[in-house]
Amino acid sequence: MAGGGMIAPSVNKGYPGKFTGRVFITCIVAATGGLIFGYDIGISGGVTSMPPFLEKFFPDVYKKEVLNIGGTNQYCKFDSQKLTMFTSSLYLAALVASLIASTVTRKLGRRPSMLLGGALFLAGAIVNGLAQNTTMLYVGRALLGVGVGFANQSVPVYLSEMAPYKYRGALNMVFQLSITIGILAAYVINYFTAKMESGNGWRYSLGCAGVPAIIFVLGSLCLPDTPNSLIERGKNDEARKRLQNIRGVDNVDEEYNDLINASIESQKIKHPWAKLFSRKYRPQLLFVSFIPFFQQLTGMNVFMFYAPILFKTIGFGANASLFSSVITGVVNTVSTLVSMVTVDRFGRRGLFIEGGLQMLICQVRFLVYLSISAFNYFN
Fold this sequence. Notes:
CATH class of the domain at 21-225 and 299-346: Mainly Alpha
CATH superfamily of the domain at 21-225 and 299-346: MFS general substrate transporter like domains
Oligomer: single chain
Main location: membrane
Transmembrane segments: 23-43, 83-101, 113-131, 137-159, 171-192, 204-223, 285-309, 321-343, 355-378
Protein name: Sugar carrier C-like
Helix content: over 70%
Number of strands: 0
Number of helices: 19
Domain Major facilitator superfamily (MFS) profile: 26-379
Keywords: Membrane, Sugar transport, Symport, Transmembrane, Transmembrane helix, Transport
């Protein structure tokens, strides 16, 4: 059982079927949901480094960072709970929304959940782009967060259920690729909007979040629901036809019967949370909990959120810090493409270990550099 419902059995069977153009197109459209998440990861750090934005909404930070009033050192100029709330409110809302989204995704289907997520994200982008005060900023960020929660809940499930088992790893990576493309797009847009003489570049940066949202909503309207979801809701005949359509063959009995059996078994579980914490599933629970937990503790997401600000604090100029973020986004996107090509060839574990070692080495080097920089600054 996944959070959003039943996923196709992961048994390594040679189900008959083709990698059809329909599967490819539907997975690409669904994966654009990652654009909305990636764009917001990249946009907030650049916007909060723009002086016109700080002057309008966070004057205390503007006085310390731009006017250098109060003699605050470079490492503390962005120390503001209100400014931090601007960034974190999205992720708090996404956390709460993801709990609700799992039920919606299971009961109503993946497609409605994706549509709702895209619509809410679009509403949040409009509110933020037109913001006149911090209340509008927070409300807009909360709407963005709910949209992200629904999209991140439904899209991976949709991709897993639509993709043939042989290509499931690569097609799921399309979602990650769209996240990195969204981050890169945000960095590039911030780089150019920061130079606008009108001082309203931040509005364009925040409002442009509506572009991936529109793509996601329009794409979701054209997507079919998955056979798994149809079976969950008792539409077995329609599920068989859908499976035949997306696999490109008439003989789908083996995969179809496995989906039926998986659905029957999942419905027998009356208390899924109690079952999840039972001794039998404890190893799997530990893995799925601690891997993302420690991944977050590496701090890489914080680096992606605040890249322009981090570059500023170590002495980069305004344009240099934004351009350095663009370079980070390009490397991130290229690395994801490499992972897509190699994930089904070398396996998840190999990439996981390699990525972890690379992050460890680079972060230690970065820590040494920052420590030397801080020591020289204070002495």
